């Protein structure tokens, strides 16, 4: 893929999925330096703790991924599905990889379709696939930002997770690889 060419929907979302993994990895690296007790204690987030917020990110990704594949998944956002922090991180990383692989295998026409699904309250809805995927990507960024603010407030350093830093790193990597004789 030409890095400077305009994106088609498929390649755009494959790159976005890769960016999500990159940003999550950076967040998890920063969280690895935070005292374990602080991950599960109340921090004033919508889902109260950092742990529950990361669990929510995973649960929402699983819910939307099931919908994308025409499956139904019953979720309870009040419950933490992964109580073990390391298992939660592994599951979140695995879910991100699974989504990216799925996107890579999708037909381009998928992004021009509408998705019919039911909300968690059982209400029927329709949404363009590209809008569903945009929601999935921005939802993660929204909560990563909240978590980053909390760890900064707690006196820990967060890492840059903005897309521009990902893009610069990927472009530098491509240039480095291209320079190999």
TrEMBL record:
Q: Which InterPro entries match?
A: DinB (IPR007837), DinB/YfiT-like (IPR034660)
**Origin organism of this chain?**
mine drainage metagenome
Q: Which SUPFAM superfamilies match?
A: DinB/YfiT-like putative metalloenzymes (SSF109854)
Keywords carried by this UniProt record: Metal-binding
Q: Which Pfam families match?
A: DinB
Report what the protein is called. Answer: DinB family protein
Listed GO molecular functions? Answer: metal ion binding
This protein's record includes keyword Metal-binding:
yes
Q: Where is the signal peptide?
A: none
């Amino acid at each position: 893929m030409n890095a400077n060419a305009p994106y088609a929907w498929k390649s755009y979302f494959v790159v976005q999925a890769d960016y999500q993994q990159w940003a999550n990895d950076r967040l998890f690296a920063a969280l690895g330096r935070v005292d374990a007790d602080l991950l599960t204690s109340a921090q004033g987030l919508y889902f109260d703790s950092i742990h529950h917020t990361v669990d929510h990110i995973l649960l929402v990704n699983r819910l939307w991924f099931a919908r994308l594949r025409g499956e139904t998944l019953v979720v309870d956002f009040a419950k933490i599905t992964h109580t073990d922090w390391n298992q939660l991180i592994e599951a979140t990383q695995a879910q991100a990889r699974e989504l990216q692989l799925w996107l890579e295998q999708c037909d381009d026409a998928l992004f021009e379709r509408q998705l019919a699904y039911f909300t968690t309250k059982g209400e029927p809805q329709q949404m363009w696939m590209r809008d569903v995927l945009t929601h999935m990507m921005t939802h993660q960024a929204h909560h990563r930002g909240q978590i980053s603010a909390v760890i900064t407030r707690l006196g820990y350093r967060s890492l840059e997770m903005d897309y521009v830093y990902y893009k610069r790193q990927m472009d530098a990597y491509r240039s480095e690889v291209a320079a190999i004789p």
